[in-house]
Structures are given as structure tokens and as C-alpha cells.
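DM from R.C. (forwarded with permission)

"hey, sorry to bug you on a friday — could you get me a structure for this? deadline for the figure draft is monday and I only need the backbone to look sensible"
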Amino acid sequence: MTSTQRWPEQGWALLQLLLVASFSVAEELLCRQRGDPENPQLLKDGDIMLGGLFSFHSSWKNRREDFTHKPSPLECTSLNFRGFQFAQAMRFAIEEINNSTDLLPAISLGYKFFDTCSSVARGVRAALALANADEVTSAPSKTPCARPAQVLAIMGETSSSLSMPIATVIGPFHIPMISHFATCACLSDKTKYPSFLRTIPSDYYQSRALAQLVKHFGWTWVGAIRTNDDYGNNGMAIFSETAQQLGICLEYSSTVSVFRTDPPDKIQKVIDIIKASTSQVIVAFLHHLDMDVLIHELTHHNLTGYQWVGSESWIFDSQIAKLDRNHILDGAIGLSIPRAHVSGMREFMLDVKPLNSSSADIFTEFWETLFGCKFKQPSLSGSHRECTGHEVLTGAVNSFTDMSLMPIFNNVYKGVYAVAHALHRVLGCNQTCDDKLQPDPFTILQHIKKTHFNTKDGDEVYFNEDGDPAAKYEIINWQPTRHRAVDFVTAGLYDASLPADKQLNLQSTSLVFAQNSTLVPVSVCSESCPPGTRKVLLKGKPVCCFDCIRCAEGEISNSTDSVSCVRCHPDFWSNERRDTCVKKDIEFLSYEEIMGALLTAASLSGTCATLLVLLVFFRHRKSPIVRANNSELSFLLLFSLTLCFLCSLSFIGRPSKWSCMLRHTAFGITFVLCISCILGKTMVVLMAFRATLPGSDVMKWFGPAQQRLSVLAFTLVQVVICVIWLTRSPPFPFKNIQELKGKIILECALGSAVGFWAVLGYIGVLAVLCFVLAFLARKLPDNFNEAKFITFSMLIFCAVWITFIPAYVSSPGKLSVAVEIFAILASTFGLLCCIFIPKCYIILMKPEKNTRKNMMGKTTPNSL
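My reply, with the result:
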């Protein structure tokens, strides 16, 4: 090849190199968008553009990428009429503002609506498309490609799961994003979502309201089903936290996302859980799409009889009510956005023909799905009629013509008007607006947060510091009608701005529950514990599952489901039902009861008997038998026996300070006086025998004066013991609440036990000494030897008081007092009978033996 032949090839190569260089320089002066552009589904130009993100489709086709070529765009499926309804509501608000002479005069608003296709990726791409223009524009050298956002605000998205990533991306641009149906409480966090606002209340209030609603009906054992996304998970988390505070337990908490990602067997697992559960109430925090699928399965398995509690996403949805052919959800109760009426909106939304002017491809799909026809195509199937484009919606019944979601449409309407009012202030609109100003999204955002106005129908619109509106809900109850339809009855209101005890206002008389019953269903793990019992938690079970244990004696619970029993005041005792404390019966030995009356009668009988003996002895005081047995000591002994009988009366009756001191001291002193007299008589007998011996002068040392002095000395010792006892630690009245559980025993506490046993011990010592001396003198050779009778009397006396000690210690309550009285009376009767009755018998019945000769006669002594 020659050089002339090679030149054209070299020239073409040089030319190509120059062209590449020139294009490279040109590209440096242009701003281009990376990737494929996103085009709006519906578009209208205006002076100020607003964006709209709506799910015109609810799903997309799955695709497999082999990573050998660029992925194709997402192909959306399942046309969703709700997205069109929300778009129509936004269009209505924009058209109304454009036609208004008061708000934004001479300023036209335009819109760009994008289909998010219920996809996070598609939603983020659409949001970025609204923030950046698609067209290629030139830029000066060394100047970054920076330009204002093509929209000043974005309306949408509908769901919380889509709103969160979109708000995260839009936040740094400070473009206001106003959602009409994203309720997740997490979106109130302004550090993560600084430009997000909404016209629907946060789920923080809805979840708490649902928990209060469940608690209002006494449902403490419930099941829960939630959508497995940010809406369901966050809403159910707040509900669970509030429910736990209110004493409500969740038997199960299942997640579903059947419309998107869950396999078919996941919904079957939920059905199986419901069948195996014991709770009769199900709280459903579900998207309406998931509820659609769930109701199909519930109908297939005919799971009726459950009380459903629903969130605002589906509780007011008439399409779900139409799907409920078996009336499984009849009686459902839940929260809904307050009903609203926007004049002219219904008629505008149903007028869909202007949408055709957009020449958008989505209109064709929308029109064909709406009217069930097909536009003319080469391969038109005979199974579909041809669309003319002039079809009329009059009389058509489908989800698009259903206006039951008017409160949500109103939220879209209010969001657009919030932006318009902010623009009105920024542009300084008075009679005309300053169209030379170029408002930026950040300024609009600040003014939207401060806006506060009323719509034409009287709805108040404002945002709090978190970008949320006031939390107000209607309580909706599904009530079946005669034509097997469902009527959404407003049964009450919930207003979070009111005090806690007034937030829930429910009209319980108009409610219908599951299976068309007017009775509130019962859903508890364990029946309530009635008063008189307390709850005991079951190991390994929730706090709502428990046993009821009867309160112990002396404890009560006077409220239902009490967690503990309260011990009664010491003066009170629990009744038989253990639900109230009753005053304890006060027990003491009284004169009115049989035992007290018998002991009183015995005491008085002994006193009378002693007085009769004293009278007999006094009338026969000069008789030999009276004179022979030391009449002075006999009369003193009879007097002391009388006091012994009478002192037993001080033990009967209500104990008091003085009666307690009197009963023990009187008993101790009178018995010592009595024993001292007997001891004196015994010693006289012994001394008299000693005096008969030759050369004995012992009687001069134990004459009447010495006898009186000995009695006085013995008694004075007991007096000293009693005085010391009374001054140091005297007996006192005491309420014994330990002896008998249901009674208060009024008794006399000893004060000093040493003093009490010293008194008894001294009596015992004198009694033993007297018994020993009498026993020694029992065989003295007198015809009538008194020592024998004293021996018998002391034997009885000692036997009584020896048996008294264990009986006294072991006897409960007033029986111990009765034992002490019995011991006093028994020993006193023993002394009276053994010493004086034989003498009275001789005086009265054998007067022939009452002679000095007979008294002084010597006889052969008999053995004892």
C-alpha cells in the first residue's frame, strides 16, 4: 500500500479523535442525570409545582437478574384505585386553589404525580426525580450542577414503610413532605425526618387508644396480628407497652405481610395460631391489603366468634366489609379518622375524563380496569368489549366510586391547603402575589409548620412541634343490617388532648359485639379473683394467668383481683368471706354467761354456808365443842373463809385496773389469813398435848396473845409481798389477741410473774407446814381431836392447788380464770366442810355429845 493510500485512513483517525475531544468538552458544560429518567404518570404545568407520590399499583412483577446486562425498569401490576382516589383528591384541592381569588391570586399550581408501585426503590427514585429535573441543561465552566428543586412540596406517601425511606432522602433537601395516611410514630422523630409532616395522627396515640379501648371492656387476654413493616411493628410495640401498663396480656403476636413477601404457608400458620388460642379478642394492626388476604383465609376456615379490634387502616374500609361474606368481622370495633365532608370533592373525583387530557399511558390501564373494557387493539379479544372513552361512572359500583375513605381524602386536601397557605404568606399575597420571588423549599417548610387555618368546611388545620396534627379518633363499630350489609356506627370518640380520664368517651349501650351479640364477650386467661382472695401468679405464665388463693385468717381483700391480702387491725378479724374486717368478740368471764353464773352461785352459796356456820357457832359459842377448839380462832377462820368465797367474785366481770390488783392481792391475803388461823389451831392442839405432860409449861408461851400475834405475823408477811408486787409491777388489764384468733380475751396480766408465784408459794409453804403439824397431831388421845379434820382439809387444799398449776397454765382464755376460781372455791369448801361441818353436826344433830366430859374423855386412838 502506498503513502497516498494510507493518508485517508490517517485523516479519518485524526478526525475521529478531534470529534471525541470536542464532545468531551461539550459534556463538561452540560448537567446530565445519571441513569434512566423517571417520568410522572400525571402532569400539569403551573407557576409553582407540587409533587405527588401515590401507589397507582400495589405490586410488581418479580424478575431474575443475570448481571450480564442493565436491569430493566420495574414492571408494576395490580392497579390500585386508591392511589387514583388520593391523586384525584389532590387535583381537586389544586383546582380549587387555582380558581380561588383569595388564596394565591394569579398564581397557578401545577403537579407531577409519580407511581411508587408500593416499592421502596421506586418511591425513592420518584422522590429524587421530583427534587431534580430530568432535562439536560448547560452550566458555566467550573460551576457545579446546582438548581432549585422542581417541586416545593410533596404529597404522600400513603404507607409508613414507603414514607420513611423517602423522607430520609428528601430530608436533606428540606422539601416538605406531607403524608395523608402514614401513621408510624417513628416518623415524628425530627432528627431523622426533618421535613416530614402529616395530616393524620401518629400511631403513638392510636395504639394507646386501642389499649385503653381493650381495657375498657375488661379484655385482659388478647391475641395480636400485625403487618410486618414499620407501620405494624411500631404500632404494635406501643400497644404492647401500653397494654402491659394496663394489665393486658398478649397470648400471641403474629406478623403477616401476605400481599408482598410472605409465602402462602405463613398465613396458614397464623390461622393455626388463632385456632389453638384461648383468647376471644384479636387486635389487628394491619394494612388494608393484608387484611384483604387475611379475611379470605378466615372465611375459608370459617373462623367466627372472635371479637376483632382494628386500626384505622381497615376498620372503616367498606371494601373489606364486602369481602366478609361470612360476617366474621361483625361486631368489630376500632379507631377511625373522624368523618369529614368536603363539598364538591365527590363529584370532582368521579369526573375522571379530564385525566385523559394528560395523554398518559396509565390512563389507558386505569380506564380499562375501571369500566372493564379494552381500547381497540389489533389482537382485541372477544371476551372484552371495546372502550369508547366516553363511558360514564353513573351507577357503577366499584372501589373507585366508594367514598368511604373520605376522611383520608380530606387529609390530602388539607395537606395541599397547608402548602398553599404557606406560599400565600411567603409570596406576600395581599391582592396579588409577588411572582418575582422564588420561594425555596426550606422557607416553605418553616411556614407550613407555623400555619394554622380552617378549611371551608370548618376543619382546623395545624401541626405540633413533631409535624403531627391533633389526635382525635372516632370509635367505629361494625353492625350488621337487615340486608346482610355492614353499617359503620360511630360509638364514641377519643381525644388525646383531654385529661387521661376523659379521653375515651364510649356509648356502650349502642354497641354490637361478635356474632351480633349485645353482651360484652369475655376474654381473660383466668377469671377475676373475687374479694376475699388474692392473685397468685402461675410459674412460667403471663401475669394475666393466675390462681385465686383465699386470704388467711385475719386478712382480707375488699377489691377484685387484689394482689395481696391486708391484715386486719389487732382489734378486728376477718369475716367468713374474708372481704371485710369485723370487730373481734370480746371475751371475759362475765356474770351473764352460764359458767360465770354457776361460779357466782357457788361463791355466794359458800359465803352463805360459812355465814350459817358462823351463826351456829355464835349461838353455841359457850358450848364445850366451840370452846374446846379455840373459839376465837374459829370465828377468825370463818371470817377469812367468808372473804375467800367473796374474793372469787372479783375474778368475774370485765377486768379493770383496780379489779386486777384486787383479785390477786385479796386472794393471797385472805388465804394466808385462813391458813394462819388453821396453823394456829393446829399448834394449839400440839401445845395442849405437850402441856399435859408433867412439868411442862409450854402453854404459857402460846397463849391467846401469842396466837393472835402469830396469825398477824403470818398474814403481815403476805401483805408485804403483795405491797412489793403492787408497787413494782402490779397486775393490769390486758387484751390477749393471740390466744384465740377471732376473739379478744380480756384478762389480767400478772405484771410480775415473780410476785404472783411468791404469793402462791407463800400460801403453799404455810399449807404444807399446817399439813405436817396436823398430820403429827392426828393420833393425840382426845375424844374429839380437831387435828384429824385439819389434816383432811389440808390434804384437800394441797391436792387442789397442786392440780391447779398445770390446769391454769394449759387453760385458754377465760377458762384459766374459771380454773383459778374453781381452785379457790374447792379449797375453801374443803376447809369449811372438813373443819366445821363435823362440829355443826354434833352441835345440831348430836347435842348429847356436846359436853365437857365427852370432849375431855380419853379413848383409844384409831389409825387414820
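R.C.: lifesaver. Residues 1-29, 858-864 have pLDDT under 50 and may be disordered.
me: no worries. The chain has five domains: 42-61+74-138+147-200+405-462, 203-336+471-516, 353-392, 533-583, 620-836.
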